[in-house]
Amino acid sequence: MNVLNEQETVLHARNVQKSYGSKGGAQQVLRGIDLRILRKEFVGIMGPSGSGKTTLLNVLATIDRTTDGTILIEDEDISTMNNTALSAFRRNKLGFLFQDYNLLDSLTVKENILLPLSLSKISKQQADNEFTAIADVLGIQELSHKYPFEISGGQKQRTAAGRALIHQPSIIFADEPTGALDSKSASSLLSVMEEVNRKRKVTIIMVTHDPVASSYCNRVVFLKDGKIYSELYRGEKSRQLFFKEIIDVQAVLGGDHIDSV
Amino acid sequence: MTVFELALRSMRQNVKHYYLYFFALIFSMSLFFVFSSLQHDQQVQSMLESSDKFLTAFQSAAILLIVIIVIFTISSNQIFLRRRSREIGLYQLIGLSKGRVARYLIIENVLLGFGALISGIICGALVSRLFVLILMKLLSLDGLPAIDFSLPAAFDTAIVFVLVVVITSVQMIFMIYRSTLLNLFQADQQPDLSSQPPSVLASILTAIYAVLGIVLLGYGYELSGRMVDEQLVVNALMVILSTIAGTYILFRVTIKWCFSWIRRRKQGHLGLYNSLSLAPLMHRMKGSANSLTLITVLSALTITLVTMAYSFYYSAEHDTRLAMPDDFAFENRLQDTQAFTSELESKGIHFNHHTIQAIRTTGVILNRLDESSRIEERLIWLPAEQLHKAGRNVSVPSKGDAVQYNAGGLNAFDDIDLSKRYPTGIELQADGQNVSYTLNELVLENMLNSNIFGSQMVVSEATLKDIEDKMFKTLDFEKVQFDAYRISDKAELALASSLYEKYKLDDHFSYDFYSQYRSALELSGLLIFIAAFLGLAFLASTGSILYFKQMTEAEQEKQSFKTLRQLGFDEKMIMKGIVRKQMVVFLLPLFIGILHSFFAVKAASFMIISDITIPAVTSIVAYTAIYFLFAIFTLGYYRKVVKHAML
């Protein structure tokens, strides 16, 4: 714990609340969440359906707005920014991974990955170097001229990961990135994410309902009814051991079914 | 649940998907109803009976209108079916046989069509009055039109409706029976792309095609410049075919080839704006080629049609005046001349009267380009001195020389260089011996009204005397006196024209300027009305097809917009890319269409003597302006989709 405290805070959420609908019949999804995420952390967010994990991710990722509370990312208060500023912020500081990959069908793998760099002032040469480095890590060099409809789900998600990494964001938000993948592609993607997190020192926040996926994280935050229920740190534990601990918490939480290893 | 109930229920719940197709049907029906009402209108009908030209113009317009309605409904039905392909697939997935699905869609189609027919007739009945008013105004006819609801027009519209429903139903049956479940579910995601670098053979073929497209267009354009000869019909057909084929290849191959080239050069660094324009355009080039070709050709057709009709209208007075420099002319009718003069004086009409003594003989104008052709024609020899005194701008040719005056002269020879034909000789036969004179030049003006028989040759008094001496014994020799009147005041001219009426002979050649001008105005007014009506129909169809297509594409690209917004590109940036794409989608066919029409108008301009720049520019500007409305609608739709993409 001491080691973590000395590190720099990259995201700090205070008393984040979110409700949908009109004031009278409003449904509160997030009921005051306090969360501090440090640089280079790989954090999993888990919880049963309806616990608000995707809402929390959207709010933290500036895709959705909070009803109340403040969120600081790298000491910038995103809850007071206007839409244009938020877009610019997302473009420069954040990366995204989605369950459905969300690649642009009409662009090749390379074009998709380089997309976040358009409108930025990075030179073509620099961008090419960065692309080569990332494509090597992700193992998609040979695919760079293929279109999304020509490659597999796992390859698509690696492409999406490339797109999330190319502009060296402060945080990558991943929403069920393994949700549409078979277990082999899933574990290979997660290994890559773990490696990227370690080697490229990227902060990753990942929502998942899969305990296997979250066992790759440094820390897992459990949500229940829009509040933080508990947290688990992996520390020096093996992944198998961490996985068992996650399963235990999930059993207490109830709700979601439990996947096998 | 019976198929009929299923159809009804699904229609109730899917109104928002149908409205587009429904609107297209209503639009077609009301357009045809208005046109048909006009055709059956008493006043218009009596006008049609008066002239074969009117009748032909109206009938060909009706056929063109049916053609465009069929093309339009087929295109929108296709777009509509593609939007619903998933639904059609779903019915088959849950176990409905293809036959039942087809039956269900056809019931739906008939119901929709019937609704469109009724609404179309109602809309049409409401606006047809307005159209008749416009028509009467254009033709400067007095008297309010009393257009009632026209039953025969409704009947005609119903027949067109049956035609449209049958065609679209056949289209639906084809679509259901020919597509597999898999392509029904993937209808909107079959990309026209491949990451494989094309083989050498394929790239050579592509290059050949790309060049072929441009060659075909060039050939069409080139041929259009020299097609007015004996084989006009064959030539015109060749021009149309090569231009349409060239346009198609241009869109299908040449432009795609250019796009691929640009894209390859980017080496993956496509950037946001190209990702939103170049990439989706290439993605759908195959499907787009058909509609872009259709729109280009229709645009060209519309602009040409409207330009020509407007030119006729615009030049009615000028062209008539060129052909008929005098308002009234009498030939050897001394008593009538006196009577007319005194009648004009008694009404207080200011006029200018002069008399010209001339002779008419038979002779041959030698053709320098073809020595063997010797065509005998009637020649009127006019003394330059008298013409000069009458205020005409002529110089006196030297003895033995003549100058021909013919306002329509250029039309006869088209683009052939006049300097190769003149000077030439004129040969007259007198008492078995040849007399020849030199014909110095052809002036593109008339000295006498064109309804006076004979080619107009201006010579000096001395030459005239010489010809008379030599020719007066020949059989065809005539001494003629022309009495010409000019009236500068428009109102007095109209009055004089009505006075002149009783001096008209039964020979169809003794018409005066004013009545000729009026009938030219009426004919061209009708032409411009028909052209504008068809043009509007064409424009509305092309615009709608583009709009519908882009609407569908906008919906298919919705996920891309959402992703881009999540990645941090804001609405403005995305719209910039979309505007770039729409520029290509709308401007490319417009520019090529205008280019086509430029050559088409040039080829057809032999029919008009006056300068047609102003009518051409006016119709292009009007067409472009209305066309841009559709682009604005399309962009508005995209903006809405992008705006709501995040939710």
Features:
heterodimer, A: 261 residues, alpha/beta, Rossmann fold, 4-stranded antiparallel β-sheet, 36% helix, globular, B: 647 residues, 6-stranded mixed beta barrel, 22 helices
Summarize the entry for a quick read:
The complex is a heterodimer of chains A (261) and B (647). With 261 residues, chain A is α/β, with parallel strands linked by helices.
Can you offer a commentary on this structure?
The complex is a heterodimer of chains A (261) and B (647). Chain A is of the alpha/beta class and 261 residues long. Chain A has a domain at 31-105 and 169-254: Rossmann fold. Chain A is 36% helix and 25% strand. Chain A has helices at 2-6, 53-60, 83-93, 109-114, 124-138, 153-165, 183-199, 211-214, 239-253, and strands at 9-20, 27-38, 42-46, 68-73, 76-77, 94-97, 171-175, 203-207, 219-224, 227-233. The two termini of chain A are 28 Å apart. Chain B has helices at 3-13, 15-40, 42-50, 52-83, 85-93, 98-138, 151-178, 181-185, 200-224, 232-266, 271-276, 278-283, 285-323, 334-346, 384-389, 409-413, 461-471, 490-500, 513-556, 558-566, 571-604, 613-643; strands at 328-331, 352-365, 376-383, 401-405, 424-430, 433-443, 455-459, 478-486. Chains A and B meet through α3, α4 and α5 of A and α11, α12 and α20 of B.
Instruction: Determine the most extensive contact between two protein chains.
Output: A-B, 38 and 31 residues
Could you state the CATH homologous superfamily of the domain at 31-105 and 169-254 in chain A? P-loop containing nucleotide triphosphate hydrolases
Instruction: Please estimate the helix content of chain A.
Output: 25-40%
| SS elements, strand count of chain B | 8
Approximate shape of chain A: globular
Going by helix content, strand content and strand pairing, the class of chain A is alpha/beta
Helix and strand pattern of chain A: HEEEHEEHEHHHEHEHEEH
Identify the overall geometry of chain B.
Answer: elongated
Whole-number average pLDDT of chain B? Answer: 83
Strand content of chain A: 15-25%
Task: Please describe the biggest sheet of chain A, giving its number of strands, its sense, and whether it closes into a barrel.
Answer: 6 strands, mixed
Helix segment tally of chain A: 9
Intertermini distance of chain A: 28 Å
The number of strands of chain A is 10
